[in-house]
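check this:
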Amino acid sequence: MSDGRASARPLPARPETMLVIDDHPIVMQGVRRLAEAAGVAKVYEAADIVSGYRLFHRHRPALVVADLSFRDDGLSGLSLIRRIRALDPAARILVFSMHADPVLVSRALESGALGFALKDAGSDAFLEALDAVHAGRGYLPHALATDVAMLNRSARPAPLATLSARELQILSLLSQGKSYDAIASAMAVSYRTIINASSSMRKKLGVESRAGLVQIAVNRRNALL
């Protein structure tokens, strides 16, 4: 028989272990403190994709929280997501980014992320995203979900929406002034792979030269800042 008091809502089960991959120390510190206060027992930290992948390989955390953009490696978070999912197809990955770009969101989900949260959304939204991804559910803020749906339903998608995750990463590195050789080294692929991808991008974006591709890359970078 009820005593008239509202029953307490059960708290969500939080992951025992979590890996945070972000090259901003303040963000890293904030996420760790928030996660620990929410009941996550162990938080591993990595400031770059190489150490992030190694920590995942060694510890297999229950949840990965990763940024997409890293200072010297462009959108290397996309390739990191693919590598983690190749190692563990059941890995649960939440992207934590400041870029509310539906193209990036779509590519992150295609690469294997289960959710996407924005850094300016506040702690409650972050914990909601963490709980959803840990439970195996997808998570997108409502406005972003609408933008991604519209992007995918458009009869004539925007040119950048036709780029693959790898092509977006190359475009990001071009915006930093990197040469094709440097991009190939950063992405651990052959020079010919970068040349072929750049040729494909020029066709998709309707430009005839590397200079035109670089200009689009710089314009896009400025728009995301």
